[in-house]
Design brief:
Elements lengths: L2 H14 L11 H18 L3 E5 L6 E6 L7 E7 L19 E3 L8 E3 L7 H16 L6 E7 L9 H7 L8 E4 L11 E6 L1 E10 L5 E2 H4 L6 H10 L22 H7 L6 H8 L12 H4 L5 E9 L9 E2 L2 E10 L5 H14 L6 E10 L2 E2 L5 H14 L4 E4 L6 H9 L3 E3 L15 E3 H29 L1
Parallel strand pairs: 3-6, 3-7, 7-17, 8-16
Antiparallel strand pairs: 1-2, 2-6, 4-5, 5-18, 8-15, 9-13, 9-14, 10-12, 11-13
Helix pairs in contact: 1-3, 2-3, 3-13, 4-12, 11-13
């Protein structure tokens, strides 16, 4: 490890120590500290103009390196907020006390901490890539940074900021590293993201918790009812039962599905990596199709009644669940949210009331592969990995990406360096040192190729 790499690693670890959990107001001050940390990191890397922009929620960090109005402009987007660390007891080391461990997939080591990959590690790659490029000479491209603190809670205030600052954010392309790649030997470029509709439901029965001996068998138990209602959200073929759910779903052609299947995938490795013996999903589609090009519905959390140590024989007054639906083109997330609400309420028996809250959502996104931005990313990976990247649809959601295109009129390129095994959103999240440093090496190559292709396109146009 070089002196610079050691310094980069130390700085990254200090970033990860900040518990910037956007979902919990108890961490509000820590989120503000993380925003200041990012601002300082940008300035120290050589970004001359940096600022923290307040919103009605968590702040946005903005920076810009403007060198020539005739040069192309790249807007780098990322987020410094992280998922809650719960459940804490499943972490092998404290989530905000980063440690480096070697694993079979990461013989060079990986940093274990909340946010290591999603998205602090990948955001920091871009900041250090800027530092590397400036150390090699003047920039040949204008670069802007927009690093937010609310991505993990739906980016509630980002759209208003973008709409109010279109001139400030004017660019030719948006560069994002908040996705992954197939493996350390086979890079890939994410060409699609699923949309999202995130809901919360509450089933209410009696006006208080009841003694299950005195009242059991005579009243509707909200927990039992909730479980019954959830079980009716899928049929025997694991298709979502919400009327109208599939009406707008984009169906890929057989040729497109065959092209997707060329990506290397080992089902046994997949099952082994997450400790399962078999897979389950919508009939008629293979495992990778189910988690990329098909819509889904999953319960993300469920609670009610007594869950403490020992026994307490009660019928709970309330039962609650959080439910997310991953969506595909051309599903409209607000429409899906309304369809869910109507259908879920229709499943309730007499004796209970149902409340449904729509938290947040976003649209699916597909990146074209013929743009100069995509080609620049392709050549950059080819340079540093020695093998051409494979275009790959992703299963996750970044709701603001289609919003960027709508409001700013530009495409986004998703250059991720994470792996499926990095346990993002889970205990023991980590990011490999190989991936981290390879990102810092690859990102400057993107700029080189993008500038070259941009000049060529401009020359041809003129």
């Amino acid at each position: 490890m070089t002196t610079d790499q050691k310094r980069f690693l130390d700085e990254w670890i200090s970033f990860l120590k900040i518990p910037s959990v956007s979902a919990d107001n108890a961490y509000k001050k820590d989120v503000e500290i993380a925003a200041q940390w990012v601002k300082d990191a940008l300035k120290n890397a050589g970004c001359p103009q940096t600022e923290i922009i307040k919103t009605s929620g968590h702040p946005i960090v903005y920076g810009e390196c403007l060198v020539d109005s005739n040069y192309p402009t790249v807007l780098v987007y990322g987020h410094y907020d992280v998922q809650p660390p719960d459940p804490i007891d499943l972490w092998e080391s404290p989530p905000f006390e980063p440690v480096i461990k070697t694993t079979s997939l990461h013989p060079q080591g990986a940093v274990f901490a909340r946010g290591a990959c999603d998205d602090k590690g990948q955001v920091f790659m871009h900041i250090k890539a800027l530092e590397v490029m400036l150390s090699q000479g003047p920039l040949k491209c204008n670069i802007k940074f927009m690093i937010e603190g609310e991505e993990e809670v739906g980016s509630d205030n980002l759209e208003d900021f973008v709409k109010a600052n279109k001139e400030k954010l004017k660019c030719d392309i948006i560069l994002i590293s908040d996705t992954g790649m197939i493996s350390q030997k086979q890079p890939s470029i994410s060409t699609g993201l699923r949309g999202l509709s995130y809901m919360e439901v509450t089933i209410t029965g009696p006006n208080r918790d009841l003694h299950s001996g005195l009242y059991g068998g005579s009243v509707a138990n909200p927990i039992n009812v909730l479980c019954e209602m959830i079980s009716k959200l899928h049929d025997e073929n694991q298709r979502v039962t919400i009327p109208g759910f599939y009406d707008r779903v984009e169906e890929l052609s057989q040729e497109e599905r065959l092209e997707m299947a060329k990506a290397p995938f080992d089902l046994n490795d997949f099952k082994s990596s997450i400790g399962i013996t078999d897979i389950r999903g919508e009939s008629g589609y293979n495992n990778e199709e189910r988690r990329t090009i098909r819509p889904t519905l999953d319960v993300n959390g469920i609670w009610g009644g007594y869950t403490g140590e020992g026994a307490k024989t009660v019928i709970a007054s309330k039962a609650q669940a959080k439910i997310s639906m991953r969506l595909v083109p051309d599903q409209e997330w607000n429409e899906i949210s309304e369809l869910f609400t109507e259908h879920f309420k229709s499943l309730a028996p007499k004796g209970v009331t149902v409340d449904v809250i729509k938290h947040h959502g976003g649209y699916a996104y597909v990146t074209p592969t013929e743009t100069i931005g995509y080609k620049a990313a392709h050549y950059a990976y080819l340079d540093t990995f020695g093998i051409a990247p494979i275009p790959s649809r992703g299963g996750g959601s970044i709701p603001i990406v289609p919003m960027f295109e709508k409001e700013l009129g530009v495409k986004s390129i998703l250059m991720g360096f994470g792996l499926d095994s990095d346990a993002i959103h889970s205990p023991n999240e980590h990011f490999g040192l190989f991936n981290f440093f390879k990102g810092i090496e690859t990102i400057p190559r993107f700029y080189e190729h993008y500038i070259s292709l941009f000049k060529k396109k401009t020359t041809e146009f003129n």
